[in-house]
Amino acid sequence: DIQMTQSPSSLSASVGDRVTITCRASQSIGYYLNWYQQKAGKAPKLLIYDASNLQSGVPSRFSGSGSGTDFTLTVTSLQPEDVATYFCQQSYSVVYTFGQGTKLEIK
Amino acid sequence: QVQLVESGGGVVQPGKSLRLSCAASGFSFSNYGMHWVRQAPGKGLEWVANIWSTGKNQYYADSVKGRFSISRDNSRSTLFLQMNTLSAEDTAIYYCARESSGTTVSFDFWGIGTQVTVSS
Predict the structure, then answer these.
(1) For the segment A70-99, what is each residue's pLDDT rounded down to a tens digit?
(2) How many CA atoms lie within 13 A of A35 on its CB side?
(3) 20 to 30 A from B120, CA-CA: which of A43, A51, A72, B77?
(4) For range B94-119, the mean pLDDT
């Protein structure tokens, strides 16, 4: 199975900050990478698909980039409602593995 | 609007079985692949299984292969997960998720989840 490794595991930043989360795949996965946001007690929500495409209705302060093995999720101008855990997920192989998650908090 | 509502969770003894359901509405269910994803307490997300829109093909995570079975009834817009020989490691919130209609696989809508607890 393809292993997905996120860093950092947790992150604290101030409102208005630019935040970057990285995701590394154990083998090349092209652009087959998605990002999800999960708020406490809620189901995950799709943010970014195919590495860089913003899902409908998601604020434009979220963006994704990367290809191959290294990917990033960026939040420009962090907002209080962005407090959540973020997961990457590969769709290159049929066992659709997720990263372990990055917990984002506000300072 | 798209809605996915899971049911069938509960407390079950090790070695027993449970059947989860996911009722879909607000979209043409028979046109979409569907998935089950679970989340153990305080842990990350684990993909469990998926089934094609036609029901023809199913795929499973190694951790559940041979014990779990995914199926669907397109006439009732319902997805199922039959879980047999349950163990404590299967304790989790189980989510059903719709596969997006794009060229790659992402999960664009999720249910609220149903809790499965395996305990004696």
Answers:
(1) 999 999 999 999 999 999 999 999 999 999
(2) 30
(3) A43
(4) 94
